[in-house]
DNA sequence: TTACATGTAACTATAATAGTTACAATATGA
DNA sequence: TCATATTGTAACTATTATAGTTACATGTAA
C-alpha cells in the first residue's frame, strides 16, 4: 500500500508555479512536461488544488498561478487538497469482529485510538513544513 | 488508499492469544470466528507473525501461543511483521520527472526527506505502544 | 494409520491508481 | 463573430493490491 502519487504531483506543480511566475506559460501541457505525465492527470490534480483555493485557473484561459503565498501553504494543505487519505482512514480495520468475544467487541475502539494517534503524528509532520521550504530546498540543491 | 487490515487482524489475533492461554484452543478456525474472517486469512497472517518471532505455531499441531511477553511487543513490531508498509514507501512519488527542469531534477530528494520524516513520525507513534496496553484497554472497556 | 490442523498455491471479486482518448465548455485575439 | 487553443470531465484501459475462497499437500499425535 502506498499513498497516491497525486500528492507528489501536486507538490511538484505548486513548486513550478512558484518558480515560474509567467502565468500564461503554466499550461497543463507544459506542467505535464516537467512532471512527465499526461496533461489530463495534471488537470485533474489542478482541479482539486483549485477546489482547495491553492491555485487560480480558469476554463478557456491558458495557464495557472498560485492563489496564496508559498509560506502560507503547508504540505498538509496540499495533502488534504488532493484527498489521498480520508479522515481517520490511514489504517484500515477489519470489520464486524465477533461481539460474543471480549476482544471482538472491544478491539475496534482500542485500535481507533492508536491508529488515529499515529495518523495525526504523520499529518502533523506534514503540517510544519511549508512549500517555501521545499522550494528553497530545490533551489539550494540545484546550486551545489 | 488505506493500510491493509492485515495489521488490525494481526493485533486482534495477538490480543486473543494473550487472553486465552489455552494454546490448543487457539486454532485458525477458532481465531477466525472472533475476527470474523476465513481461517486461511488467519493462517497467512499467522505465518508472518511466526516469521517475526511473535508467535509459536507448528504445522500439524493445533493451536498457537505468544512467543514473547505482551509488554515486549510494540505495535510497530506487529506492523513490520505483517509488512503492510514497505521501508520508506508510505508515500508514493511520481517517477521520472523531467531532468531538464530545475524542479524535475531536484524534487525527488526533497520529497524523500519530507515523506521519510512523516512516515517515521507515524511509525514512532506505533513504537511507543505495547500490546500490553492494548489488551489492558480492551479489558477495561469491557468492565465498564 | 486415521483424524485433524497447519501451510500454501491458485483462483476470484472488488477497488484504487495512473494513464489515455474523446469531446464539451470556455475565453480570447484576429 | 469566428477560429483557435486551453481547461474541464466523462469514460475507458491496464495494472496492482486486498480480502476472501477452494483445494490440497504436509505434518503431528492419539
UniProtKB/TrEMBL annotation, chains A, B:
<protein>
    <submittedName>
        <fullName>Rrf2 family transcriptional regulator</fullName>
    </submittedName>
</protein>
<dbReference type="InterPro" id="IPR000944">
    <property type="entry name" value="Tscrpt_reg_Rrf2"/>
</dbReference>
<dbReference type="Pfam" id="PF02082">
    <property type="entry name" value="Rrf2"/>
</dbReference>
<dbReference type="InterPro" id="IPR036388">
    <property type="entry name" value="WH-like_DNA-bd_sf"/>
</dbReference>
<dbReference type="InterPro" id="IPR036390">
    <property type="entry name" value="WH_DNA-bd_sf"/>
</dbReference>
Amino acid at each position: 500500500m502506498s499513498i497516491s502519487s497525486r500528492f507528489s504531483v501536486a507538490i511538484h506543480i505548486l513548486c513550478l508555479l512558484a518558480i515560474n511566475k509567467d502565468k500564461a506559460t503554466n499550461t497543463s501541457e507544459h506542467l505535464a512536461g516537467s512532471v512527465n505525465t499526461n496533461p489530463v492527470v495534471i488537470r485533474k490534480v489542478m482541479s482539486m488544488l483549485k477546489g482547495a483555493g491553492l491555485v487560480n485557473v480558469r476554463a478557456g484561459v491558458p495557464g495557472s498561478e498560485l492563489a496564496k503565498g508559498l509560506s502560507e501553504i503547508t504540505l498538509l494543505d496540499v495533502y488534504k487538497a488532493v484527498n489521498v487519505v480520508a479522515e481517520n482512514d490511514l489504517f484500515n480495520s477489519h470489520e464486524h469482529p465477533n461481539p460474543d468475544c471480549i476482544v471482538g467487541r472491544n478491539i475496534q475502539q482500542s485500535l481507533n485510538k492508536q491508529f488515529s494517534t499515529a495518523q495525526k503524528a504523520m499529518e502533523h509532520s506534514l503540517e510544519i513544513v511549508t512549500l517555501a521550504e521545499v522550494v528553497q530546498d530545490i533551489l539550494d540543491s540545484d546550486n551545489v
